[in-house]
């Protein structure tokens, strides 16, 4: 994923602002936490493919972690704030350390440009197995929490 971003940044610099790298890092962590648990062996290509598929579905992303905060155990003010965050324009990717930080950014970043590049990468040879068959991404929901 991190090779894709600099290439997209150079290619698309004049067309619009791409999402921050931190958003993609959190998306990668999310894919790894949700998807690789069901696997016997970790496969980097499957993980990369999963992240590309999530980028493609950016309009449906609503991802947050409840390691440092929770909808159930927090004050009513924080609970209401988190619930309001979930109603915002997607993609929503809340910073695990700071739920007030939506690094997904809704409409403020050009996710559509990154999604277009991700779609083109899906046809890369790195997503074929030894027999030339396409590998499958991990099963990861676009809406989730930890």
From TrEMBL:
<dbReference type="InterPro" id="IPR018952">
    <property type="entry name" value="2-5-oligoAdlate_synth_1_dom2/C"/>
</dbReference>
<dbReference type="GO" id="GO:0045071">
    <property type="term" value="P:negative regulation of viral genome replication"/>
</dbReference>
<dbReference type="GO" id="GO:0003725">
    <property type="term" value="F:double-stranded RNA binding"/>
</dbReference>
<dbReference type="GO" id="GO:0016020">
    <property type="term" value="C:membrane"/>
</dbReference>
<dbReference type="GO" id="GO:0051607">
    <property type="term" value="P:defense response to virus"/>
</dbReference>
<keyword id="KW-0694">RNA-binding</keyword>
<protein>
    <submittedName>
        <fullName>OAS2</fullName>
    </submittedName>
</protein>
<feature type="domain" description="2'-5'-oligoadenylate synthetase 1">
    <location>
        <begin position="5"/>
        <end position="142"/>
    </location>
</feature>
<dbReference type="GO" id="GO:0005654">
    <property type="term" value="C:nucleoplasm"/>
</dbReference>
<dbReference type="InterPro" id="IPR006117">
    <property type="entry name" value="2-5OAS_C_CS"/>
</dbReference>
<dbReference type="GO" id="GO:0005829">
    <property type="term" value="C:cytosol"/>
</dbReference>
<dbReference type="Pfam" id="PF10421">
    <property type="entry name" value="OAS1_C"/>
</dbReference>
<dbReference type="GO" id="GO:0001730">
    <property type="term" value="F:2'-5'-oligoadenylate synthetase activity"/>
</dbReference>
């Amino acid at each position: 994923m991190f090779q894709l971003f600099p290439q997209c940044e150079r290619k698309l610099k004049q067309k619009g602002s791409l999402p921050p790298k931190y958003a993609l890092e959190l998306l990668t962590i999310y894919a790894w936490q949700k998807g690789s648990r069901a696997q016997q062996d970790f496969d980097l290509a499957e993980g990369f493919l999963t992240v590309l598929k999530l980028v493609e579905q950016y309009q449906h992303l609503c991802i947050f972690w409840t390691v440092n905060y929770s909808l159930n155990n927090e004050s009513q003010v924080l609970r209401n704030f988190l619930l309001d965050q979930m109603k915002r324009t997607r993609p929503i990717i809340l910073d695990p350390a700071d739920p007030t930080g939506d690094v997904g950014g809704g409409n403020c970043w050009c996710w559509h440009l990154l999604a277009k590049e991700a779609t083109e990468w899906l046809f890369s040879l790195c997503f074929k197995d030894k027999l030339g068959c396409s590998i499958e991404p991990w099963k990861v929901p676009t809406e989730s929490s930890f």
